[in-house]
Description:
This protein is of the alpha/beta class. The chain has helices at about 5-15, 25-35, 50-60, 75-85, 100-105, 120-125, 145-150, 170-175, 190-195, 195-220; strands spanning about 15-20, 40-45, 70, 90, 110, 115, 130-135, 155-160, 180.
Amino acid sequence: xxxxxxxxxxxxxxxxxxxxxxxxxxxxxxxxxxxxxxxxxxxxxxxxxxxxxxxxxxxxxxxxxxxxxxxxxxxxxxxxxxxxxxxxxxxxxxxxxxxxxxxxxxxxxxxxxxxxxxxxxxxxxxxxxxxxxxxxxxxxxxxxxxxxxxxxxxxxxxxxxxxxxxxxxxxxxxxxxxxxxxxxxxxxxxxxxxxxxxxxxxxxxxxxxxxxxxxxxxxxxxxxx
Length: 225
C-alpha cells in the first residue's frame, strides 16, 4: 500500500488500536478482538519484548484481510528499518525524529511522528510529516487542547493519543481529530490475559459507534460563512 492509501485508511477508520502484548498469542488474540468490534487499524508497540517478531507474524497473518498492522514507539532509524522489514504498514513515534521520517519515506511507508507544542508540530511538518500524533494529549487539556492547537493548523491531520477514552472520544472528534489513538481504555490487559476477549470486542464496538455518531454530528453542522 502507498503512503496515501494508508493515510486514507486511517482517516476513514478514525481509530488506531494501540496494543501492548507480551506474546504473539496474546497479540493475535487482541487483534482478533478489536477487529471483531470493527477496528482494523492496529499498532504494536516496540516497548514489548519481541515486538518485531510479533509485528512480522501478524503482518503475515493479516496481509490479505484488510487489517493494517503498524509499529508504535519507533524511536530510531534502525528500529524503523526492522519494523519496515517485518511488514509494518505504518510507523508511529512518541516524538519527531527527522531520521525516522527519512527512513520511512525512503521505504514508502507512512511515518506518524509525535508532537505536543506548536513548535514541535511545525518541526514535524517541515520534515514532511503528513499525519502527526499529539502526545500525551490528555495530560495537557485533552479535547480543549486539541481544538486550540488546530486553530493555527486547521489542515493538519492530528491523532490525539494518551488519555483518549470512549467517554471523551466524541469530544476529540468534535475538536477536529483526524483519528484517535487509544490503548489501555480499549484493550483491557487483564481480560486479554484471561481470554475474555468478548469484553474487548464490546469496547471496540462501543468506540466505533461513538466515533461514527460524532462524525455524523459534525457533518451536519453548517459551515461558517
